[in-house]
Write a structure and sequence with these properties.
Helix content of chain A is 35%, strand content 14%. Chain A is of the alpha/beta class and 374 residues long. In chain A, α6 crosses α8. The interface between A and B is large, with 71 and 71 residues.
């Protein structure tokens, strides 16, 4: 494995799966948002894998997490492994980039038809439910009435469950991985990340130029997120208290700013590397927009009671908790699944044993597949 | 309780204990530092409680944590409660502000005799062992040869144990609370906090003017620290997913920067409040200096083996882990105590059951006292 792989802590990449088609869908008219505002003719960027069969009963919707894209075959390839969860021969897989993102769908970087200039900080709050509403219109256009399966991890799992609540007659099964409504600790972590971006003078109130993004703020936000995606046992095993592999010495007064900063430990070098990689691929305002979708997801919101919301569900639900996840603790996921079970449908809960924390559904895909096959 | 108390999450203050004397001790000559540099005639600010008896066998050293001061009677008053751990009638209690701090001892804000201007970013790395070396010279000047007890929580516990290793013949008993060498996750949290301060343009490479400190960076650093001092269960119980108590609504597009930031949740308001309170009382460079003392504490460093270091100890050691502490997990403290037990002296380990996380040794003092009496 290259040093960059050691640094990123990623597994060697498996063979990527190419989409059958990748393109844009522009909503006809406007999309009303729960926040009270609307998006005029927003674009959804999406990718499809495989073909819709004549009976139109082989459609699967994969929903991506915070910094994901429509190219599920690239970030979740092992889900397509022979005998795994999805099959290009059998299924028609659709993955749609979230509104607010920077991977093709309408987000803060897009032009606001009302003003002729980019939304920037005026991009409205687009929640998980708003995304599901928009996604349903795209599936309609593809001739997909019913989903054999809707699935996702983290923010993707929020969307999959929201689909089962909002469109009970359109979802046969939903697979919800490593997620529950964000806890106070999760809200706290997102609050810290927002400040890291806002405090960067380059952010300029969200009106920065594309060529001058708030790199340091977004890097710090990503680093704060990374500690919540991984686990203490993994960090101890991989980095421990070792000095940074570049040769910096944390124990002397030399190094950056001598006594106050000094040489890094290896975990510091790893986090800096993760931050740098991220700012090369993601936009700060898009990050803020999607953090807010994550913060505000409350599937019972607008219903008389959680029972009223979850009682609508007709899909078979499967929840997966991750043993070392402290952003969405397995116990929170298990309890959440139990609340839903009591309100409705058959729900099963499985636990993935992994040192990778929340990130396990992406970092240990083969393990996830094994668990789902069991 | 006032709203400010709700916000700070603090218990109602108990009666503070006044010191018998508070003053400065200037080291004669220089203090050699493990990093290879030295401090010329550094000042130690300290406070004493009670009186040294004729036999000079009633001295106790209390060591403070990251942002603490010499006034232990103000930040740890319940330790002095009748029948508790310390007694002003029986003991002669000494508490010394750490080098690098901003509460009276020499730190980055002090004038460097070599240049005639403040150390600022040139303040050297002053580790836990360096502090213990300086503290020993102050105790010599007070006629204290031997300590009946050395104790502290967090960074204070690091100093108490370092005393037992460096001066085996001078410490009868050491009480080490909620601490072990910092794990990779702990090093990661400090790495994030350093960046939050460094990224603030007001920090200006550590050469900011006292009247223009990096307030936003230090506030964010404190907020990052706060999530590691408390626990997810406590945050859920106190703040949950409630909107900020000021009336902000996280679910609408109004509020600060409409769609990208929006109204805060209550946990966000709590963290902002904690950050604001902290910048009013602490200095950013001092914070960086002490973070580094915490990062670099490795009690076995410089010895042939951990056994060689811990085998020197003659003091009776007591360790306390805190059930919900995730900065210094109870399991890490227990394992650390076991390593020391195998190398030397009688060591006992006790666990404090609390929802307050690492902060419990300060937030639930009565509980801590009960545990120590049991």
């Amino acid at each position: 494995m290259s040093d960059s792989f050691n640094r990123s802590g990623a597994s060697p990449p498996s063979k990527l799966v190419e989409p059958t088609y990748e393109g844009n869908f522009v909503l006809d008219g406007s999309l009303a948002l729960d926040c009270g505002r609307e998006l005029v003719a927003p674009t959804l960027h999406y990718a499809v894998y495989g073909r819709l069969n004549a009976a139109r009963d082989n459609a699967v919707l994969v929903c991506h997490a915070l910094s994901g894209s429509a190219l599920v075959g690239s970030w979740w390839p092992e889900i397509f492994a022979p005998g795994a969860v999805l099959s290009i021969e059998r299924d028609f897989v659709v993955c749609i980039n979230m509104l607010g993102s920077c991977y093709g769908s309408t987000g803060p970087g897009a032009v606001d038809p009302a003003t002729g200039s980019p939304y920037g900080p005026d991009f409205p709050l687009v929640g998980v439910r708003d995304n599901v509403r928009a996604q349903a219109r795209l599936l309609d256009s593809l001739g997909i009435r019913r989903l054999r399966l809707a699935l996702g991890g983290s923010l993707g799992g929020m969307q999959a469950l929201e689909w089962a609540i909002q469109h009970p007659d359109r979802v046969e099964r939903a697979l919800v991985i490593g997620v529950a409504p964000l806890s106070a600790m999760g809200l706290a972590l997102n609050h810290l990340q927002r400040q890291a971006i806002q405090h960067d003078p380059e952010w300029t109130g969200g009106r920065y130029l594309p060529q001058r993004p708030p790199r340091r703020g977004l890097s710090l936000a990503r680093q704060i997120a990374m500690i919540s995606y991984k686990s203490a046992p993994l960090f101890n095993e991989r980095y421990g208290r070792n000095p940074d592999r570049s040769g910096e010495d944390p124990y002397v007064a030399e190094g950056a700013l001598g006594g106050l900063i000094g040489g890094r430990f290896d975990i510091g070098g790893y986090l800096d590397h993760q931050g740098k990689r991220f700012v090369d691929r993601f936009d700060a305002n898009a990050y803020l927009a999607i953090l807010r979708a994550m913060d505000t997801w409350d599937p019972a919101r607008g219903f008389e009671s959680p029972e009223a919301a979850f009682g609508r569900i007709r899909a078979r639900l499967s929840f997966v908790g991750i043993s070392t996840d402290w952003l969405f603790p397995a116990e929170d996921v298990r309890r959440f699944a139990e609340v839903i079970r009591q309100a409705c449908a058959p729900v099963d809960y499985r636990e993935m044993v992994s040192d990778h924390g929340h990130d396990a559904f992406l970092a240990e895909q083969a393990e996830l597949v094994r668990l789902l096959q069991s």
